Amino acid sequence: MKITAIQLGHLSVPLKTPFKTALRTVDSIENIAVRIMTDTGHIGYGEAAPTAVITGDTLSSIGGAVKNYIAPQLIGLDIENLEAIMMKLDKVLVKNTSAKAAVDIALYDLFGQYYKAPLYKLLGGFRKEITTDITISVNMPEEMVRDSISAVARGYKTLKIKVGKDARMDLKRLKAIREAVGENIQLRIDANQGWKPKEAVSILRDIEDAGLAIEFVEQPVAAHDFEGLKYVTDHVTFPVMADESIFSPKDALKILQERAVDLINIKLMKTGGIHQALKIIAIAEAYGVECMMGCMLESKLSVTAAAHVAAAKNIVTKIDLDGPGLCSIDPFDGGAIFKGERILLQEIPGLGFTDVPESIFS
Ligand SMILES: C[C@H](N)C(=O)N[C@H](CCC(=O)O)C(=O)O
Ligand SMILES: [Mg+2]
């Protein structure tokens, strides 16, 4: 199965409601779709999300990286030797992790099709169903309460609450949400780098003193501030998760060697795809550190790939794969089945897409 062409498309999907974090506000998904054609007629699909504030990747940088750097190196290579292709993909240019992720995902889709097995089975096959949280955007407390009640009514039992924007409001936000949803709903919080280390400790202690049980806090401080992350981890009782601080296996090694966090959020758009994500999973396993599989604002195309990885691995115990649940439409047939908080892997080779609209690539 040899690669004959790598094609780019534009994926535009309105969100149900604006997505707001401490870093950005977005109304729709405007992503790049990738399809890899082969001499056997098999097609692999991938997707890249241009999350400039986190990865530095933009629509034009992703398009340029795939078209001008990655595609010319990969045409003619055989899917059977996935390791050789991945070495080329890694070396052809530095950073550009979202562009690499889209291509890597499409390659793994083909790898599964080549071996006629669903990807999660080839990667370990630990389970075939996982359960995601749903994100509550950072807004005024009343709006966050409305969104939380609506999410619970739709069956979600874990809410990922965005905080870190106007720190004085964060305690009010969490108190109001906990009061509205009761004790049986799990709350995890994501500050998206919005706090300074001492501020984070003070807010988290206030949250604890108020008796507000939270499962963990994600990325409380700036991505580059590994010392600040450790300071928070050492001074609060809640588990601390690294998100924007960990892109590569080297980042994971450094942070875990320093015991700077308790948990890791792995996203294919940060790692550059599944190949590197598997290395981070192996490192985390060696340190006994549980992982969350997360996503950027992505459609079912790439979130299905993340779901296959998450389902395959025992150490991935937390799931934040709510991208498709935030979208107002699903343009694709096949892939994983997203039913509220439940994500079910299908027994179809590769990622299992049966219909991806041609219009995306025209
Ligand atoms: C969509 C997912 N639940 C999420 O919250 N991801 C963010 C970053 C998403 C973005 O800004 O596109 C995160 O975990 O920080
Ligand atoms: Mg995060």
From TrEMBL:
Binding site for substrate: 24, 135, 160, 295, 297, 320, 322
SMART domains reported for this sequence: MR_MLE
Positions annotated to bind Mg(2+): 190, 218, 243
GO-annotated biological processes: amino acid catabolic process; peptide metabolic process
Gene3D superfamilies tied to this protein: Enolase-like C-terminal domain, Enolase-like, N-terminal domain
InterPro entries for this protein: Dipeptide_epimerase, Enolase-like_C_sf, Enolase-like_N, Enolase_C-like, Mandel_Rmase/mucon_lact_enz_CS, Mandelate_racemase_C, Mandelate_racemase_N_dom
Name by which UniProt lists this protein: Dipeptide epimerase
